[in-house]
Amino acid sequence: MVGDDTPVRLTTGETVRFAHLDHAASAPCVRAAADAVRDLLPFAGSVHRGTGLRSQTSTLEYERARDLVASFAGARTGDSVVFTRNTTDALNLLARALPPGTTTVVFDGEHHANLLPWPRQLRLPCPDSPDAAVAALHGALRTVRGPALLAVTGASNVTGEVWPVRRLADVAHAYGARVVVDAAQLAPHSPVDLTALGADYLAFSGHKLYAPFGAGVLAGRADWLDAAPPYLAGGGASGVVGDRAGEVTWVRGPARHEGGTPNLLGAVALGAVCAALGRADRAALHAREQELLARLREGLAGVPGAVEVSAFGGAVPQLGIVSLALDGHDPAAVAAHLADRYGVGVRAGQFCAHPLTRRLTASARAAACGSGAAGLLRVSFGLGTRDEDLDRLTRALAETLSQGELRG
Question: Residue-wise over 84-122: b if at least 16 C-beta within 10 A, else e?
């Protein structure tokens, strides 16, 4: 990992290795991504625009990155792989490309990126079990006429719980609906494959997938994308522009929605990480992450006043994400204290998932967790996380929560 041994000076005057436990927001950069950018920089030029060495090299590497991402996502023959800025951008792109009159079905446990863009929205309460999610979708789709799309997360950015995507996709397809999976959290922790998930579309971000260079992806069926107006009207998206206003022939394929000069370095970095993960032993990485998750829970068991929240009550697999309700403490103040005094970076707040976080916070209070400030404290980890990082966190959290001056 780039910056794996970054030192941080604490308010105590001590200097320690920074423990980054905020992967769910942005993951560190892996060496494969940094090396790919470094190697391309001497040849960086305009993509699809020139005949010189820089342009030809850049075009080749950009399209090679697309192929690597397509393989990583399990893109099928005829699928389109569009480079975007991030997951939010990718989902907004698809929202703009929906056929007129499309009903979008979404659970309110989603990240705002998968909650806010959709038109004609049929919003369902976040279920308390996978079976409840399937039953709710059945009930919702029975009432829908015309084209429909289910927008669902692969894994929650708040609880790390993996959603029953394949079961939901099978239900959606039985009613003739399509499915888009927000894989922003799932992709860094688990293989993602359009066919295996039963998805029509898949969206994810480079900055959560160890390639923080500003690229994201929308991969999936091309027909809706080719039929829609360009997401960004401009050069690259246009094939022929006439002399009169409105006389434009738009290209088909990914370029239709990649108007302007694309993010070459972001795409190449993301492609490099996809290739590296494709070569890796994902089963071994998963097993290691589950070891870390068990270690974290063991440590948290000794921290009075910190209660892990869950939407599905532990009934599903979980990624390296744990959110805590804190007994009588302001999560933001606790997070700042952990950073300043212990060199531990976590996240506090509602994590751009306000309906879900409010529900989980209320549930925790009902379970006698206390009445601290709104929001949760989130610990998230992945590649590069060490046992000692989690041990330092649990020790620091126990000491912090015992200090009366930080109570909300």
Answer: bbbbbbbbbbbbebbeeebbbbbbebbbebbbebbebee
CA 70 to chain centre: 17
pTM above 0.85, yes or no: yes
3-state secondary structure of 220: strand
Residue 195: how many other CB atoms lie within 10 Å = 9
Write the DSSP string, 355-402.
HHHHHHHHHHHHTT-----SSEEEEE--TT--HHHHHHHHHHHHHHHT
Q: In whole angstroms, how far apart are CA 105 and each of 116, 122, 178, 273, 354? A: 12, 5, 10, 32, 18
CA 212 to chain centre: 12
352 an active-site residue? yes
Residues 6 or more apart whose CB falls under 8 angstroms from that of 366 comprise: none
Per-residue pLDDT of the chain (408 residues; tens, 9 = 90+): 999 999 999 999 999 999 999 999 999 999 999 999 999 999 999 999 888 999 999 999 999 999 999 999 999 999 999 999 999 999 999 999 999 999 999 999 999 999 999 999 999 999 999 999 999 999 999 999 999 999 999 999 999 999 999 999 999 999 999 999 999 999 999 999 999 999 999 999 999 999 999 999 999 999 999 999 999 999 998 889 998 988 999 989 999 999 999 999 999 999 999 999 999 999 999 999 999 999 999 999 999 999 999 999 987 999 999 999 998 899 999 999 999 999 999 999 999 999 999 999 886 554 433 444 569 999 999 999 999 999 999 999 999 998 865 665
| Cα dist from 99 to 127, 153, 250, 335, whole Å | 28, 22, 18, 44
Interatomic CA distance for residues 345 and 379, integer angstroms: 9
d(CA 289, CA 277): 15
Q: Which of 153, 92, 80, 145 is nearest to 118 (CA)?
A: 92
* Chain Cα centroid distance, residue 1: 19
| DSSP category for residue 265 | H
Catalytic residue from among 29, 126, 352, 369 = 352
**Inter-residue contact 389 to 19 (CB < 8 Å):** yes
Q: Give the DSSP per-residue string, 228-246.
A: SPPSS-STTTEEEE-SSTT
